[in-house]
Amino acid sequence: MDAPSRIAVTGSSGLIGSALVGALRADGHEVVRLVRRPARARDEAEWDPSGRRQELTAAAIEGCQAVVHLAGAGVGDRRWTARYKREIRDSRVLGTAAVAAAIASLDTPPRVFLCGSAIGYYGDTGDRAVDEDAPAGTGFLAELCQEWEAAAAPAERAGVRTAFLRTGLVVARSGGAWGRLFPLFRAGLGGRLGNGRQYWSFIALDDHIAALRFLLRDDTKLSGPVNLTGPEPVTNREATRAMGRVLHRPTLFAAPAPLLRLALGDFAEDVLGSQRVLPARLLAAGFTFGHPGIDDALRAAVARR
């Protein structure tokens, strides 16, 4: 948004959502936080993304110029069982459908809808670099991302500029996959996962928030899929070495693939899989990364308060 605006955010208590809310308020915007409980503050509105009612009342986002939808059960929060995979799917697909339906029902809908997604859309790409023009891959996450994005169709049909945030591994000390790695590496217990040759497409938290603010601008005009990854993907082995350099710790340990499969269930295949994803559309639109390299991203995470 080019001027102070009213912006609704789901997932506002999560890693990305909480950082985004702070940044938007610093920019002078009014933020409406959509929460999964009775509203207790003036800036909150209740919604139900769980599927029990699959409901978001249009009044909650009335007058908003933008909606940023980041809510969803954590992909790496628990071992992947059939039951938890259903929860992951429903929290995203049903939640997105509820938000998109509410947007489409408004007489004056928001100008922009930023809808969460993930680079899991591309499946395992091996050493092959892919951008937003690449087709969908196979596997649970690839199928989930296709359903997730398709659920936003009502907002698109209503003429709302809709961008799908295909997010990579967010480098941050607290929250997300990297939030689990930092304590291990600080303790000298970090190391590669599997053979370490799989590509990790990462993005610094600060760059992710800057990209969201960039996408909200009226002059950006990007819609459709947008890869929120840094421009320099690295292998897990390279990321491990960088953690050792930045934290000044040894990286002698390794987690063998069979152990990861035992601990993580089906999620292990995605941890061991390789995704070399490039942010072609962001770069073409003129976005500049503040922390493009893995060492820069890690140092920014360490310095962030």
Radius of gyration: 19 Å
Mean pLDDT: 90
Biggest sheet record: 7 strands, parallel
Q: Got a strand count?
A: 15
Listing every helix as H and every strand as E from the N terminus to the C terminus, the arrangement reads EHEEEHEEHHEEHEEEHEEHEHHEHH
CATH architecture grouping: 3-Layer(aba) Sandwich
Structural class: alpha/beta
Helix content: 25-40%
Description of the molecule:
The protein is built from 11 helices and 15 strands. Helix 2 links the parallel strand 4 (66-69) and strand 5 (112-118). The protein has one domain (6-303): Rossmann fold. It has 305 residues and is α/β, with parallel strands linked by helices. The two termini are 26 Å apart. The chain has helices at 15-26, 82-105, 140-150, 153-157, 176-186, 205-216, 236-247, 257-264, 267-272, 280-284, 294-303; strands spanning 6-10, 30-35, 44-46, 66-69, 112-118, 129-130, 161-167, 169-171, 191-193, 199-200, 202-204, 224-228, 234-235, 253-255, 276-277. Helix 1 (15-26) crosses helix 6 (205-216) and helix 7 packs across helix 11. It is globular and about 60 Å long. The strands form 5 sheets. A 7-stranded parallel sheet has the order 3-2-1-4-5-7-12, with helices on both faces.
